[in-house]
Amino acid sequence: MSGRVALVTGGGSGIGREICVGLAAAGRQVAVADLNLDGAQETASMISQTGGHAVAVHMDVADTDAVQNGVFQTVDELGPVEVLVNCAGWDELMPFLSTDESFWDRVIEINYKGVLRTVHACLPAMVEAGWGRIINIASDAGRVGSSFEAVYSGAKGGIIAFTKTIAREAARSGVTANVVCPGPTDTPLLDGIVAASDDGDKIIGAMARAVPMKRVGTPTEVASAVVYFGSDEAAFVTGQTLSVSGGLTMS
Fold first, then answer.
1. Can you give the pLDDT at residue 211?
2. What is the DSSP letter of 118?
3. Cα dist. 78→1, 32, 37, 236 in Å?
4. Domain tally for the chain?
5. How far apart are CA 25 and CA 7, in angstroms?
6. Which CATH number covers residue 155?
7. 83 forms bridges with which residues in the sheet?
8. Residues of the chain below pLDDT 50
9. Range(s) of the domain holding residue 148
10. pLDDT of residue 198
11. What confidence score (pLDDT) does residue 193 get?
């Protein structure tokens, strides 16, 4: 890969951090965007220590101005965004009837509208340049549903449909758009979900048992799929949804 510029939301920890590290190892310059600036700076430092080029960007994907400012900072420090990875996400496990509208709004603002904001901010420059890669992190929950994650599943399903539409609209402009759907993955987000739920351990145990490989995934395993979709070799692959889930979803 060349030194093209990649912007990764949620890059301060978990899957997002491993995506940043993987893209940098493949030769991309990386803007590590996260609401947690300390985490973003730590990821950027990890990349710099191994000879890569990265900058930390403070970004709240639930805030339009923050997204635009983060993109402006990336352009100023690295150049136009050519690879966009949307990995920022949030959820809590609970039955749908136990949720309220404020919870719905938060899940949708972060997990769905956050993707709309970053794509809206970055896609015009990609179209103008005639080259771009958009990789959105959804979830197998968005493909088949997931108990105690009704709103999250709906938002992730929306990302899949949205990405396919962008893939169609941008196909003749040299821009691809694809989705990576992790299954249960060992991340700080998963740890937080478990800690916030009375039945978290039981639910996660059930998730692992449902995976044919009988384990949860690792962030590095998800990142490898993202690195492929962001590569020159994936130029003829667009509108696709790839599950990295140990066989939890097969299609």
1. 80
2. H
3. 16, 12, 18, 26
4. 1
5. 15
6. 3.40.50.720
7. 6, 133
8. 1
9. 5-183+218-243
10. 66
11. 63
Examine residue 208 and state whether it is found in any structural domain, yes or no.
no
Instruction: Specify the pLDDT at position 199.
Output: 67
Amino acid type, 90: W
Burial class of residue 219, CB neighbours in 10 A (0-12, 13-18, 19+): buried
Residues for the chain: how many in total? 251
Backbone Cα Rg of the chain: 17
- Measured CA to CA, the distance from residue 72 to residue 88 in angstroms comes to 18
Any idea what DSSP says for residue 138? -
How far is residue 180's CA from residue 150's CA, in Å, rounded to a whole number? Answer: 19
Give the per-residue pLDDT at 194.
Answer: 67
pLDDT tens digits for 10-38?
A: 999 999 999 999 999 999 999 999 999 99
Q: Is residue 205 part of a domain?
A: no
Asked if residue 86 lies in contact with residue 115, where contact means CB atoms within 8 angstroms, the answer is yes
Contacts of 138 (CB under 8 A, 6+ apart): 156, 157, 159, 160, 163, 179, 180, 181, 241
Retrieve residue 92's tokens. 């809590």
- In this structure, are residues 96 and 152 in contact, taking their beta carbons and an 8 Å threshold? no
Residue 249 lies in a domain: no
What would the pLDDT profile of 215-245 be if each residue is shown by its tens digit?
Answer: 888 999 999 999 999 999 999 999 999 999 8
CB 54 within 8 A of CB 32: yes
Residue 230 lies in a domain: yes
Whether residue 107 contacts residue 93, with contact meaning beta carbons closer than 8 Å, is answered with: no
* Cα separation values, 197 from 48, 76, 95, 97, 223, Å: 37, 42, 11, 15, 27
Q: Which of the residues are catalytic?
A: 152
**Any alpha helices (H) in 61-187, and if so which ranges?**
64-77, 101-108, 114-129, 141-144, 150-170
